[in-house]
Amino acid sequence: MVMAPQSYLSAITENIWRLQYLAGIGLLTVSSPLHFGPHSRVGDDTDLDQSAASEIPWAWHNVIGDIHVWTAGAHAKYGEIVRLGPDTLSFINEQAWKDIYMHRQDANGKAMKQLAKNHKKRHENGVYSLLDAPDDVHSRQRKMLSHAFSDRALREQEPLLRSYTDLVVRNLTDDARCNRPVDIVETFNFLTFDVIGELAFGESFHACETREEHPWFALFFTTIKWTSIFSVGKKIPFAPLILIPAAPLILKSAKDMFAYTKEKVRNRIATGDKERPDFMARVLKHNTNDGTGITIPEIESTFELLAVAGSETTATLMSGLMWLALNNPPVLSKLQQEIRSAFASDSEITLIKIDHLTYLQATLQESLRMYPPVPVTLTRVTGPEGISICGEWIPGNTAVGVPHRAASLSPTNFHEPMTFAPERFFPEGKRPAKYDNDKRGATQPFSAGPRNCLGKNLAYAEMKLTISRLIYNFDFEVVNPKVNWYEQKVWGLYDKKPLMIRVRERKPSN
């Protein structure tokens, strides 16, 4: 039986006062990691080898779910480079994406080693997944998996994508005719989980059909949240002791989630079907046994990752876009005009045609900026020899990274950063002049470099097809516009609240 997240919370309630007490001591001792004069930020006079602060404030904000707000506040006060802990530096300069995440060359043009991922670990089945693999293993795995995300694969997947958006349109039509408010967050979750079930496991979760949450969803959301909370144990030795009451429950959730994934993957492999338009068919068709391919255990661990990355983040972005558009009528009106004037009927909406909708593309980019599905930092660690980042020399073994949301919403990077303005992503000469100096490279919602999101094209296709069909067929409004849905807790990913909307069928004019 899957235990609700509230049960996990109650399991540590009796010990939370200890965490508060210890956090209080840390805060009284160091005030915060940002109040250390020259050691709070990087500068010419900064000795980065000296310890600058306690890890407790970082851990505390991670546990209570406002790490994204705290980090953004630090940058607003101290600038583009901020020390968040004794060995942790945060950057929001667009150059940091290149210096930290992308391929680099030394002064002689020789390729430099990539910065390492922090806390590399093997999956519970004893192998690396694509997420945590060392560079050589990651390169081998990604090369094999890339076949599943090629342009040809995407074209073959279009009928599957359309069949599930058909179900969403049907469900929303029923809601409209019954005058029934709908939680659009749940709707998008059902859609993206069903699609990724088909693509990763060869079998849908049937959530769109039943309009009920599959047990795997609860396992997923619980595991993601508590994995983020338990991550404080990597830097705070006493934290695991405080969280011990919840540990068995979290471990069981993670094991159950992987057991389900493993069963589905093995069942799909057993079919031997190399023609089905899903990920596994491409892997089976191109895989080798000479050491350059991908092993069955690696497929199991990585397909669990693909199921996570290919579902929740896409649903998150579409939910954010709906909230932002419905609360900005001029943007919504332009989006409706572009989509509804481009097609004579719903059946004309195809991946090829929607790729030419420039305002839709800009709206997606602006939504990704204002509401990045992964709002936190994807950490890397500098090598023992140290490295230059944004013109500053950073010593070895320092955790570095760009916090997505803080960088994307910083006024140092974007004019009027809290204004939802798709026009800022128009080509030069077509966008309003006031956005010409925006540092668009500061927002990288799919990350950057050799470890960027493998499924970027699939995500864009799914989002464009879904949003186009919904905007074409329906009118929407938020049930309670006074509720600020945008401000949410974050534990690795957003802890999204329901977004209730009213749906009305649109009757296309002849």
Return the average pLDDT rounded to an integer.
85
Please give the CATH architecture: Orthogonal Bundle
Terminal-residue CA separation: 53 Å
Helix content: 40-55%
CATH superfamily: Cytochrome P450
Main sheet record: 5 strands, mixed
Number of domains: 1
What structural category arises from helix and sheet content? alpha+beta
Describe this structure in words.
- This protein has 510 residues and is α+β, with helices and mostly antiparallel strands.
- The chain has a single domain, classed as Cytochrome P450 (Cytochrome p450, Orthogonal Bundle), CATH 1.10.630.10.
- The N terminus is likely disordered.
Give the topology:
Layout: H1 5-30, H2 56-64, H3 67-78, E1 81-85, E2 88-91, H4 94-101, E3 104-105, E4 111-112, E5 116-117, H5 135-145, H6 151-177, E6 182-183, H7 184-201, H8 207-210, H9 215-230, H10 239-242, H11 247-271, H12 279-286, H13 296-309, H14 312-326, H15 329-342, H16 351-354, H17 358-370, E7 380-381, E8 387-389, E9 392-394, E10 399-401, H18 404-408, H19 456-473, E11 474-478, E12 490-491, E13 493-494, E14 500-505
Parallel strand pairs: 2-10
Antiparallel strand pairs: 1-2, 3-4, 5-7, 6-14, 7-10, 8-9, 11-14, 12-13
Helix pairs in contact: 1-2, 6-7, 6-19, 7-13, 7-14, 9-11, 11-13, 14-17, 14-19, 15-17
